[in-house]
Amino acid sequence: GVAGFAAWLGIVLLGDPKPGTNVFISAAGGGVGMVAGQLAKLRGCTVIGSTGSDKKVQLIKDEFGYDDAFNYNKEADFDVALTKYFPNGIDLYLDNVGGTMLEAVLNHVNSHAKVILCGMMSQYNKGWKEREGVRNLLNIVGKEVTMKGFMELSYMNHFGDFSKEMQGHVVQGKIRSKHKIYHGIESFLESLESVFLSINDGKVVLQLV
């Protein structure tokens, strides 16, 4: 689906990590993150994620193959957390949250790292003057980092490649998924709110019939 396609674009097409790459994925327990981590593991990467609860930390390690993860709500200082989990730096970051997490990541990227901007969940509900700025963009210059945002509609010519590859992974049991299903149009607001509150495991689905 849409979330899986975003994960595939961010990791496979744009990130293109080689075996041994240190990969960090934020919002790792969501619809994009759960697939992105598995795709990175299939490429032989070390994959660590951040998510919003201890339950989700365990979920992405046990069910989605993450090497490690941390609960961002329990971390007082993201720089300290990333120093602990990435002693050898970050080579590829799939960003789903933006804000202070993105700023912290830029303090830990390796030379020629890639930062792929899939979403900025922490900033969506803020006016542009209220949004958290990233103060250390100079690190991108000094370490020759590539930062790229993307929209799925710009890459629909790759949807066939995505479908073929993912079908193979699913049939072979290499990719697992998890869904939270809300029923009926009357559940729309509840389902949408749940995405921003990070209270669901995996992908949110609204079933209308």
TrEMBL record:
Give the protein name, as stated in the record: Alcohol dehydrogenase-like C-terminal domain-containing protein
InterPro entries (UniProt xref) = ADH-like_C, MDR_fam, NAD(P)-bd_dom_sf
The organism's place on the tree of life at top rank: Eukaryota
Which organism's genome codes for this protein? Linum tenue
Task: Tell me one GO molecular function of this protein.
Answer: 2-alkenal reductase [NAD(P)H] activity
* Record-annotated membrane-spanning stretches: none
Q: Which UniProt keywords apply?
A: Oxidoreductase
Q: Does the record bear Plastid in its keywords?
A: no
What range(s) does the Alcohol dehydrogenase-like C-terminal domain occupy?
A: 31-156
Q: What PANTHER family does the entry give? A: 2-ALKENAL REDUCTASE (NADP(+)-DEPENDENT)-LIKE, PROSTAGLANDIN REDUCTASE
